[in-house]
Every structure is written in structure tokens, then in C-alpha cells.
Amino acid sequence: METNPLTEALATAAETAGRAPSIHNTQPWRWVVRNGALELHTVPERRLHELDPEGHLMLLSCGAALFHARVSLAAQGLSPTVERRTAEPLAVIRTAPAAEPDAHARRLVEAGLRRHTDRRPTSTTPVDPDALAAVTAAVRAEGEQAHVLRAEQVLELAATVDRAARAEATDERQQAELGRWVGGERPDGTGIPDAAIPAAPPQTTVPGRDFGVTGTLPVDAGHDTQAVYAVLYGDGDAPVDWLRAGEALSAAWLEAVDRGLNLLPLSAPVEIAHTRQLLRRMLADVGHPHAVIRLGTADTATPGPLTPRLAADQLIDIVTD
């Protein structure tokens, strides 16, 4: 049977999106190729109902996957347009032929193959100002803003992250849900394996997340003195705003990798209403915070491991009429 080239391109984009980051590697999305378009759906079974009761981080994750799919299509020589919705499907991507494959998009697709979450201390090499400018420009191109924190604000962030961690540590239901997604070898293709969790808490100014388990990833005596922290924020707080924030986060992450930087998202302070309000004060109440990121120069000598992923047939449906 002859294969439709557009269907192949859309399926390839959906498979590329499978490498996108998601909260605790839940991969809460499913793609449907139908009528020459690519639909993005959520998967309730892979949503964190206790840690993310409003679904913000699920939408952030789906937005990240949406950006990966868009980049894949542009790299294949197609021009994607996105209809973002308030109900299922969250988004529908349609395409038109482009003049030629997008060279920048191709670099971002390659960066997506290397992208991973590294929770270890940052390198001692300062962040290149041009690379930082490219990352913040990528955020703005997706309709978000990136507020780079001053030194005194990093200390405020450290206190805010610590407060969020303490609040979540006292919630037994949240801890039980976290335990289902973290630790072990993760043979089902989701969650965070021991190999991606530091063997000891990194000694950094801004604390990392305490997963409640000891991982096997070696940690040196480094710190985060050369790290750059930023708050991603936007004008709105509606579901579509969180989806677009996920696209901005993904754009920043892939641009960072392409520029030789490591990006670590810190989701804990946006998961709790009180600490999210503290983040908003850092923005002088001018926007709604959607994510916090740490940027550092990547350690190419000892890159961290890639997390497992679901197989393509668990993430993609191709509907033919």
C-alpha cells in the first residue's frame, strides 16, 4: 500500500515530540494523525493528580512536546500552523510546503536528541552572554518573557524553592504519587530512573528537588556559583497560556543545548500557590510565572543519562478514513 508522504511527516514529528521533556517524565500526551493534520491530546492516566491538581504542569509538558513537533516539521521542509484549543484536542497542527527545510530547526531537532535533565551542579565555566541572549530571545519568540534573576533574587529563589519542598514533603498523598514515578529502572518507559537521580544532594545555593530516594548518578563537589536563574512568565494564567509556556520552555531548552548550555527546570515553586505568588513578587507582579530555569555551561566530558521513553505506538495513532 502506498504511504502518504504528509502522513509520514506528521508521524515523524509526533515521534520526535516523544523526546520532549515532561514533569517527572510522565509523557502525558498522545498524538493523532487525521485528515492531513496532527492532533495533540492529553492522557489522564499519565497526569499527576496530587502534585498537579490544576493540570498546569501537564499543559506545560504538552506544550514542550508541541514545540518539538513544530520544529520537526520545519526541519522536514513544512511550514506548520497551530490551532490551540480550550478542549481536546489541545492543539491541531496543519502544514503547508516551505521553500526549503529550516536549517535552524534541523539544529534544534539534533539538540533534542541530546537534551536531558541534569540535576548535578553546574560547570565552573560562566554562561556565555551571547548564548544567554539567544535563549531569552527564543522564549520571547514564543510569546513568553524570561526574567533573569539578580544575585540577591537568587537567594530569594533558594528560600522559595526550599519552602515549596517543605510543603510537599508534608503531604503524604503527594509523596505517594511521587514515589510511583521516581526510582528504580523504569522498564515501562516513563518516570525518572535511579541513573538520573544524584547519589547525594548537590551542594548548591538553590536546592534541587528531593525525590525521597537515593539515585546512582555520581555528584562532584561543584556548586551553582556560575549558574544563571530565570523565571519564565506570561500575561495570562489560562490553560492555553500554560500550553504556550511549555512551548517557550522547550524553545529555550533546545536553544540552550544547541548553544552548549545545560538547562534545568525547577517546577516545585510553581506547583504551590503560595510559592508561585512569591515568584510573582520577583516579577514586580507584572506577569504570571510559569516556570523557573537554571542555565549553566554544559559538562561535555560527563553528560548525564537520557531518561526512558514510551514506544511510538504508545504515543501515536494514525487514523485513515
TrEMBL record:
One Gene Ontology MF term: oxidoreductase activity
Protein name, as recorded: NAD(P)H nitroreductase
